[in-house]
Amino acid sequence: MKKNKYIVFAAIGFELIGLILFSLWAGKWLQDKGYAGAQAICVVLGFFIWFVSLIIKLGRLK
Q1: Do 45 and 23 meet the contact criterion of CB atoms below 8 Å apart?
Q2: 40 near 26, Cβ under 8 Å?
Q3: What is the dihedral of CA 19, 49, 11, 60, to 10 degrees?
Q4: How much is the pLDDT for 8?
Q5: Nearest-CA neighbor of 51 among 25, 10, 15, 22?
Q6: pLDDT band at 49, cuts 50/70/90?
Q7: 23: exposed, middle or buried (Cβ count in 10 Å: 0-12, 13-18, 19+)
Q8: Binning pLDDT at 50, 70 and 90, where does residue 60 land?
């Protein structure tokens, strides 16, 4: 069964949105616990995770 490449690209966008929302929530939660700057760190970490995932997925589309 061949993968539909359009669905893969759409999923990449939804993955980014979900990861950003989760990162914002986790950062806010950690910041409320007393860790200064946790929200910014979580968002940067989320973008890094997404970028690595993007590279892996694009490598499989050959």
Answers
A1: yes
A2: no
A3: -170
A4: 77
A5: 15
A6: very high
A7: buried
A8: confident
Question: What amino acid is encoded at 55 in this protein?
Answer: I
Residue 32, classified by CB atoms within 10 Å of its CB into exposed (0-12), middle (13-18) or buried (19+), is exposed
Q: What is the DSSP string of the chain?
A: -PPPHHHHHHHHHHHHHHHHHHHHHHHHHHHHTT-TTHHHHHHHHHHHHHHHHHHHHHHHT-
How far apart, in whole angstroms, are the C-alpha atoms of residue 38 and residue 1?
43
